[in-house]
Amino acid sequence: MVDSVYRTRSLGVAAEGLPDQYADGRAARVWHYYIGDKRARTDEYRTWILSLLHDHDCRTVLDVACGTGVDSEMLVEEGFSVVSVDASDKMLKYALKTRWNRRKEPAFDKWGDQSDQRLALRNIAGMVRPGGILIIDHRNYDYILNTGCAPQGKNIYYKSDLTQDISTSILWVNNKPHMVTLDYTVQVPLPGESQLELSKFRLSYYPHRLESFKAMLVEAFGGNCKHMVYGDFQPYTPGQAQDPCYFIHVTRRTT
């Protein structure tokens, strides 16, 4: 007998085939409303990412876990060649819809070499050329594991005006953190109606600590890299007064 059951998915989501509700159509619809389109991106994020890519002379971008394609659309508009991939076909349908609606624009009518896309999916790290950079972020799991809750602060990525609440749970196995679960409660407008629907969904993540994840990145590059960490778009210093909500790793291949 057990005292309780720990659910990694939202209620109503199939027990098999989905690690969480990310790939479910309902979550994709809520996510689409939650993050909005490219106009909902914060100016700070847009300026930071574009400046970083231009500084490193990047021209081709592989947008992994692109979601609804908000960043991909923004980067295409800025002149980058973009390949977008995501584990959820429901998420990708929003990106494909945007691409179809803008198919008459030259930048959105370049499909590229499919063999290169397959190669990119097999080995992302191999796509980073000498002088190129890999940008990857994650939440401040160090803070979450130490305090039991997410650090307080604005959402640095999205200017969402939807009423929301996010609660945090941590699953420990053999005294080691095994999973962090975020329960989202969002008020979503119903199609064709003015009233709002209260929608809930759950996402689960592995809680990578900053230093261990940094070591994994350096190992992936065989040590031939320079690594920097940003906290909410600012250079991060361990022990600083302000706890960032997100860590952003920038790894530059040297050889």
Automatic annotation (TrEMBL):
This is Glycine N-methyltransferase. One of its GO terms (biological process) is methylation. One of its GO terms (cellular component) is cytosol. Keywords: Folate-binding, Methyltransferase, S-adenosyl-L-methionine, Transferase. Gene3D superfamilies: Glycine N-methyltransferase, chain A, domain 1, Vaccinia Virus protein VP39. Residues 61-97 form the Methyltransferase domain. S-adenosyl-L-methionine binds at residues 22, 31, 41, 65, 86. It is an enzyme of class 2 (transferase). It comes from Eleutherodactylus coqui (Puerto Rican coqui). InterPro entries: Gly/Sar_N_MeTrfase (IPR014369), Methyltransf_25 (IPR041698), SAM-dependent_MTases_sf (IPR029063). The keyword Iron does not apply. It holds the Pfam family Methyltransf_25. It catalyses: glycine + S-adenosyl-L-methionine = sarcosine + S-adenosyl-L-homocysteine + H(+). PROSITE patterns: SAM_GNMT. CDD domains: AdoMet_MTases (cd02440). One of its GO terms (molecular function) is folic acid binding. Its EC number is 2.1.1.20.
